[in-house]
Amino acid sequence: MGAKRRTDRALADELPALLEDRGMSLRDLAGRLSISHSHLSRSLRGAQGKTIRWQLAGDIAVALRLPRGYFPEYRAGRVAEYLMQHPKAATALFDELKLK
Known about the structure:
The chain has 100 residues and is mostly helical. The chain has helices spanning 11-22, 26-33, 37-45, 54-63, 72-85, 87-96. The chain has a single domain, classed as 434 Repressor (Amino-terminal Domain) (Orthogonal Bundle), CATH 1.10.260.
């Protein structure tokens, strides 16, 4: 069976099992991403107000040989970016979802 195309679980919740399956540590992943282990760790824990940027979520997925859109943080961020660049689409979605 191949890898799942995406998950609805938060990156921080999904990541430990993904790393274990690959025999990787968080330090190994940080090295693949060319970022510091401490930055990645703080971002995953939400320490010091840090969060996982959607771009980083996509980079993490690729580093783990998953589709870039595997994590929900990436998909949400990418959609938000698209909607900021396309105001008519944002208005149409707003109306379709009946948001207030």
